[in-house]
Amino acid sequence: MDKNYFIELADYNLWANTIVCNWLEQITEEQWSREIVSSFSSVQQTVLHIISAEYAWLERFKRNPEIVWLQPSFKGTKDEHITLWKQTSQELKKFISEFEENQLSVKLEFTRLNGDVYTMPFYQLFAHVVNHAAYHRGQLVTMLRQTGFTNVQSTDLLGYYRN
């Protein structure tokens, strides 16, 4: 795998997240915060989980020893969530774009939130971050439909490639 592949994945992630953010701009505060049975209790909590994960991974990639998990502490408005999500996804793309290709197989040691320490190569972690967001974007589609918002479209990788 080469760096261009991961730049493309980061661009896809930004593209798909921007589409979802456009949906979020259209929903009401009630739809945003309505309790829904899923991995997370609301659209807002699911969005915050995705942002928290992307933000934490960026900090790990930058070898910041103090990782902040935003989910328990970020209390922003819907618009602030959207702005932070777009910004974090743009920063992820920028980081990967500037990443040295010869470092893709270098292993990064990181500590998960539960305290477990792992070591994995950057290329696997870059792929994980994009896959993680795609998984939760799919949940958001279902959650949004449950709130009555049906103006959704595909955010699949195939759709990105076709554009």
Task: Tell me about this structure.
This protein is mainly alpha-helical and 163 residues long. It has one domain (3-162): Four Helix Bundle (Hemerythrin (Met), subunit A) (Up-down Bundle), CATH 1.20.120.450. Helices cover 61% and strands 6% of the residues. It contains 6 helices and 2 strands. The protein has helices spanning 3-26, 29-33, 43-61, 78-98, 122-146, 157-162; strands spanning 107-111, 117-121. A two-stranded antiparallel sheet has the order 1-2. Strand 1 (107-111) and strand 2 form a beta hairpin.
Span from first to last CA? 23 Å
**The first-level CATH class name:** Mainly Alpha
Query: How many helical elements?
Result: 6
Total beta strands:
2
User: pLDDT average, as an integer?
Assistant: 96
Evaluate the radius of gyration.
16 Å
Q: Roughly how much helix do the residues carry, as a percent range?
A: 55-70%
- What overall geometry do the principal axes of the alpha carbons give? globular
Question: How many separate domains make up the residues?
Answer: 1
By secondary-structure content and strand pairing, the structural class works out as: mainly alpha
Side-by-side strand order of the widest sheet: 1-2
Low-confidence stretches: none
Largest sheet: 2 strands, antiparallel
Strand content: 5-15%
Which CATH architecture would you pick?
Answer: Up-down Bundle
The topology string of helices and strands comes to HHHHEEHH
* CATH topology category name: Four Helix Bundle (Hemerythrin (Met), subunit A)
Q: Write the CATH homologous superfamily.
A: dinb family like domain
